Each structure stands twice: as structure tokens, then as C-alpha cells.
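Problem 12. The chain below contains 154 residues. Write out its predicted structure in C-alpha cell notation.
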Amino acid sequence: MPETVPTSTASSAASTPPPRRMTGVGRVLVVVYAIMALGATGRSFVQIVREFDDAPLAYSLSALSALVYILATLALVFSASERWYRVAWAAIVFELVGVLVVGTLSLTHPELFDHPTVWSGYGIGYVLIPLVLPFLGLWWLIAHRRRRPTAVSA
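Solution.
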């Protein structure tokens, strides 16, 4: 059987699918972010519906963390796009700052947090996953930095 040889490297390069960004660790990271999004959304929904007046700050922060986890999940999934890559950076940096600020305030000024939030005590109620997750997310974004095409000189 004769072997077929491509006539043009440009046409074969065009037909080759781009490498997938979301493999291995990236998929696990997205799954963990999605689980955190579901957990934080469910928690904040129940807290806000049942007892919002008991601790409005804490429950609002839980709702905010849910939105951040949802946004980070979507941004990581679509991070092959330059815009979503930037959104992922913004969401994960916001998450990290939120965890550090709320975690610190919940320990130094516990009177501000009558009830725990997702980020209280650096996420101790979630086995410190909220503290570790943004560092892993930022590491993944750095390791999978978008490659910008370089200009080819003629």
C-alpha cells in the first residue's frame, strides 16, 4: 500500500488540532473548583434563606465566595482564550486575597463573624481547601501560560 505524503506542511499544520490545555492536573483542578462552587452555593443559599438576619456579613461572604468559585471554574475551563485566561487570573487572585483577609479577620476579630463562612479560619470548615486551592490555581495558570504567536520574518 503506497504511503501518502502531505504536499504542504501548511495544510497539515492547519488540520492538526491545537494541543489541549485541560488535561491531567488541570482537569482535577477544575473538578475541585466546581465542587467548591457547588458547596459554597448550597451553603450560602441555605444560610441566606433560613437565617440571613443572624449573620448578614458572614452569609454574604459565603455567597460572594460561591460566585468567585463559579467564575474561576468557568474561567479555567475556557482559559485557552486570552480573555478567559485573564478572568481566571483575576478570579483566583481575588479568591486568594479573600481567603487571606477573611481568614485573618475571622481569627483576629471573631466578633465580625458570628457564624462561619467558606473562607473563615482560612477555610478550616472545608479542610483548608480554600487556602490551598488558589495557590494551585495560580501555579497551573503560570505553568500553562498562553503562548503568543511570534512574528515570522520574511
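Discussion. DSSP finds five helices and no strands in the chain. Students who got a different answer should revisit the alignment rule from Section 12.3.
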